[in-house]
């Protein structure tokens, strides 16, 4: 059973991402180290003791559509009630609406634990938190007053309604329409697909954030508006009124995340209400809804990155436990009379350390992204702009690299189990099934690569990414200058990886400046992995340099050295793929013609 790695999470937050220093200098008001520890400990206890057992139930039973009503797995409504009563839904929400206004870093750490215990369950609050953020940033005072307190408490959940059957990721072609009414409301008509927790039995009301197009809207993404559409209409006194004209038509039968109801939602079909049309309220301005929704999507992208970390952590824990118990053959140097645990075999040991290194690195990247978000909110002027750009730069890397390694690590976990991993009873397969959606939703990782290369690298004329690479060089220099001989050639390996990243970055910036779109986009996906691997090595190096007297320094050095000697060699090949991307594209097109 999953046990939250509270010590590793706390170490990464404090000594790699930078939380400890920020708390010490008072960046987050009266937040103390003791409070941070208490929050992490309790989140870990709840995730391991209460959520994880029901995660397995959810995977077996799945969500069901019964007589038009969605039923979540046995025990989930009560689990959700206990979770929200613990105050977890409002960790980062404004105090004015019942939130705790804590750093985003603590929320993503908690999200890691929820998702390790049950990714399918954790999706519900993840979407609610994103909806809260969008409503806080763009909603009218009246909408905030009516909806935010119940959403922050978790009594009501939120969803994100973007795509449609014909649209996929191309939101510019969506057909859901909105019609104005004289009372200031709108009527929404259309169909949305892949709506996570779009209907369920765990909360009293569901607040849908829906993209739709007005009759006179401009074509494409410039003509999209965002609307708040509740499942139940809400009275002026906050009480629930009649059912709105929105319902779940069907739920998807998916590869994984079985307990999470992924719904097809129908708006304005006349099933409920006195007239056809789901009643909605505008969020932000007409025809500017995509910008409002991106507030929610950016929140969700980092949260999805945390899903990759979470699955990788849970899969690693299960694989290590199995490798310690499973005996087979005799490993080199094994002196026992019986078969040795497979953990002793070189291939298995190296596989497990690979899983651990990738998990720790992805965790650090995501936490560093959350730190940048926090700093952008707790600084001013040029410093705030710097951290806002840093968060923007790291978001596509955090989402894509962490979700890619989530799949990779879960797959390696099955390999460690051997044939038993291919059998559902061991639970190893569930992690791979659950992980596989994460590189796809909230913008596929290919879309993240496009975003990284075309929008994020050019920030401040490339100075943001160049400055970040400079910070990586400082870590490599410190490792190389360390008096600890157990680092070996780690410093030099880090420097080589950073040089490959720098070369690829400069090349992509040049292609952007020259308007060579095919060159830059053909190298975008390998560049994204190059960035993630190099940053993993640097963050493991930063952690290895932090000897805080906890007895873990030796292991951290060993893990960093393993990463440098075994996994960073790929960065050179990735750099070559980036700079030869256009030629590879032409070859691919010739083959596929």
**Fraction of residues in helix:** 55-70%
Radius of gyration: 24 Å
Mean pLDDT: 96
> Could you name the ranges where pLDDT drops below 50 across 5 or more consecutive residues?
none
The general outline is globular
Largest sheet: 8 strands, mixed
Number of strands: 12
List keywords for this structure.
single chain, 593 residues, alpha+beta, 8-stranded mixed sheet, two-stranded antiparallel sheet
Any overview of this molecule?
The structure is a single chain. The chain is α+β, with helices and mostly antiparallel strands and 593 residues long. The chain has 18 helices and 12 strands. It has helices at residues 6-17, 19-24, 33-61, 76-85, 104-138, 141-153, 289-325, 346-377, 381-417, 428-435, 445-456, 463-480, 490-513, 517-522, 524-545, 553-567, 570-579, 581-592; strands at residues 64-66, 69-71, 156-161, 177-180, 186-196, 205-212, 225-230, 232-234, 240-243, 246-251, 262-267, 278-283. Strands 3, 4, 5, 6, 7, 10, 11 and 12 form an 8-stranded mixed β-sheet that branches. A two-stranded antiparallel ribbon has the order 1-2. The chain is globular.
List the helices and strands and how they pair.
Elements: H1 6-17, H2 19-24, H3 33-61, E1 64-66, E2 69-71, H4 76-85, H5 104-138, H6 141-153, E3 156-161, E4 177-180, E5 186-196, E6 205-212, E7 225-230, E8 232-234, E9 240-243, E10 246-251, E11 262-267, E12 278-283, H7 289-325, H8 346-377, H9 381-417, H10 428-435, H11 445-456, H12 463-480, H13 490-513, H14 517-522, H15 524-545, H16 553-567, H17 570-579, H18 581-592
Parallel strand pairs: 3-6
Antiparallel strand pairs: 1-2, 4-5, 5-11, 5-12, 6-7, 7-12, 8-9, 10-11
Helix pairs in contact: 1-8, 1-15, 3-5, 5-6, 5-7, 5-8, 7-8, 7-9, 7-10, 8-9, 8-15, 8-16, 9-10, 9-11, 9-15, 11-15, 12-13, 12-15, 13-15, 13-16, 13-17, 15-16, 15-17
